[in-house]
What we know:
The structure holds 2 protein chains of 2 kinds.
Chain A: E1 2-8, H1 14-22, E2 27-30, E3 37-43, E4 50-54, H2 66-77, E5 82-88, H3 92-102, E6 109-114, H4 116-121, E7 125-126, H5 128-135, E8 139-141, H6 150-158, H7 171-187, H8 193-201, H9 205-208, H10 213-221, H11 227-242, E9 246-247, H12 256-264, H13 270-286, H14 293-299, H15 313-322, H16 330-352, H17 356-374, H18 377-393, H19 395-408, H20 417-422, H21 427-433, H22 440-449, H23 459-473, H24 478-502, E10 513-515, H25 524-558, H26 575-583, H27 601-609, H28 616-631, H29 640-645, H30 650-660, H31 664-676, H32 681-690, H33 696-719, H34 723-759
Parallel strand pairs in A: 1-4, 1-5, 5-6, 6-8
Antiparallel strand pairs in A: 2-3, 3-4, 7-9
Chain B: E1 2-4, E2 13-19, H1 23-31, E3 39-45, E4 52-56, E5 59-63, H2 65-68, E6 71-74
Antiparallel strand pairs in B: 1-6, 2-3, 2-6, 3-4, 4-5
Amino acid sequence: MKTFALCGNPNCGKTTLFNALTGATAHVGNWPGVTVDKREGVYKKSGENIAIIDLPGIYSLSPYTPEEVISRNYILDENPYGVINIVDATNLERNLYLTTQLLEMDVPVIVALNMMDEVEKAGDKVDAKTLEERLGVPVVAVSALKGTGIKDLMARAAALPAKRSGNSVLEEDFGDKLRKVREHYEAEEVASPLFHAVKLLERDELELKRKNAAAVLEQAAGEEDLEAAIADARYKYISANLSVAKTKNGKETLTKSDKIDKVLTHRVWAIPIFLVIMFAIFHVTFSEDFLYIGAWASLGKGLPALDDLNLSEGMATFVGIFYDGAVFSPGVILFNIFDTLFGTIMDAVGGAIPTEWLSGLVADGVLGGLFAVLGFLPQILMLFMWFSLLEDSGYMARIAFVLDRIFRRFGLSGRAFLPMIMGFGCSVPAMINTRTLADEKERTATVRVIPFFSCGAKLPILTAIAGGVVQYFGVGHADLITYAMYLLGIVAAIVSVLLMRNTTLKGETPPFIMELPTYHWPRFKNLMLHLWDKTKHFVKKAFTIIFASTVLIWLFSHLNWSWHYLPDEQMNESILASVGKLVQPIFTPLGFGSQIGAYGWVFAVAAIIGLVAKENVISTFGTLGACLIALGANVGGVTSDVLLADEEGITATVAMITATGISIPGLIAFIAFNMTTIPCFAACATAKGELKKGTFKWTLLFWLASSYVIGAAVYTIGSWWWTAFIWAAVVAAVTLLVVFRNLGKLKFRKRKSARGEANA
Amino acid sequence: MGKLLSDFTVGESGKIKAVTGEGKIRRRLFDMGVTPGAEVRMRKKAPLGDPIEVTLRGYELTLRKVEAACVEVEQ
């Protein structure tokens, strides 16, 4: 089977063409060693099947981004039969810049001239014939969107002669120098000698690493810096010889895209519009009061709660998917459908197995763990969908443009904002979205702070404990505590990024030189294929690493040291409980350690169970409360049935407060700890996949350390206000230390480079 | 007279004269078509004043002011 590589600029319709070529045969993996998607598929509509590899979107074959290196090495080392170079006809000059570089390689090339319809719409014309004559390789006009020209393209691609020697548009200006370097490479029998020769003249980092390269360069070009001259010559050639294939109608009209842009990046309205769009996305996906119908109604008589409707049990279950005193948003409805379905399956399976421990293991441990993760899939996918709509339409690039100014201060680029805000919904898609960040260190820092943006599953912890505090102590306001906690997470993220970017993940703020693509309607097929890829990826993870760790936690909480099964109410005798008792003293500086007495281990256990899924922290409170009753603790008179049935967790929280005598600062510290500590297994598995090898264990350590420090600060300042001064002093000392250390380094580096210049 | 692209006001245009700057940034600018001889027009500033958006070789490019300061333009 012949293999063709698909190569072209970002935003030139490459993904659309790839999807049109390969359809359902495509599958996504990773390029080895980097987290850049590798898409492969097969074109089956011609006589012979043709394999297609989608190379990442690039502007050039420089060695500065992983995408560029991947594309370059793939064509040079993997020897595809040929390269399909997709060129955006609306943006001919810049697209042909890459074409001129591809042509220097010894590989058959065919140009797919895309978006011709757009060119014609603007009243311009591009002559494919002329372009084909001048480039010396086949040029086929296609519309990736409509699927026209694709058959012709693939027929001509398959008919390409197997061999082609590279040619360069630079021969005229750099003929002598090129020949010298090229002869050297030919003598050494390097493949694609012309391409390597040009790259060496450009003083390309990868090229200079080759044997004898520096000496050859010195001989051919001396000290002369040809990089600018070469780039210049390429563009000059393109303007003089190739762009003539395009005739403009001469009128400069304000396109639809320009008009949209005028509004979306408006000096005053850009940021408010952005905030409204973000709010709408979260509202549709996560709100339990869609369009605030419930809130509006409560101004008058209010809507009845589900329990007050007196429905039959089956009907109540059905209606409960959509409504409970307010209409749920589409995202929540989807979640409820799956949740109800999973619950029914769990009950049925659990009931069908007579042996208690086996039924518990299968229904609660295995299925429960799996469903806890899969249950979030609808909302994760929905969030993914919104954000890929923003990405495909071209709005995402504008958001980066609008917000870059703010994020630069923290050593990040405007692009880092999106994954962070996605974190409020779910860390999993947020972490995957960091792939849009070019800089490795920026990515690592962003992945690490994403869990600090409190996700949907952490909200129950906030509302239950805040509710419990207000109910038991009769102080404060539950909503206020909740907002304060969200704010704490954001502050923690900012401080952590600043600290990391100035110490372990130091690096220059990545440059921000990028294209703002024209707005267009997102492609439905692209979107669906994208979501399908994500689903496959996530489900695979759910069935492996997440599944295994979930079952392990269930076993630890339902087995004692002699491997006997314990029902839920005897969790206090489990392995997990004894681990909880063992680690309880560690949490003393956080207010839920030794000072809360013999029953205090329940908080440690709840935190560990939170690793499965954060919403389990509160559902475990009910079970733990029942354990405490069985142990004879004073929980304020509630029965274990009430605790086990308590969905909101407020009653359970009050019972735990009564039994342990934990203080308010201790409870707040418990929330803060859970919010900023190691996220759920799903997020951990994602982080492990997204981070560079070897950084994941440090990331785990970072989460543990930061949550411990944040919890301790919250507890001590809450208990003894004057300790705020000590914390302030510590922060000041750390800041000074980092600043001085970096200043010292800066001086050192300056001296070094000065010496380097003197030597040169 | 040459003027730095970072000093442009909205609507101003000119021909790029020289591109300076450290290796990586300069290379990126070249790859995006910011080369001597290219026509460039300042299109707009971000709401917070920085980065800027320019029209160049028929497309829209955004870059920060620090990066635009590497580009000298002839008017």
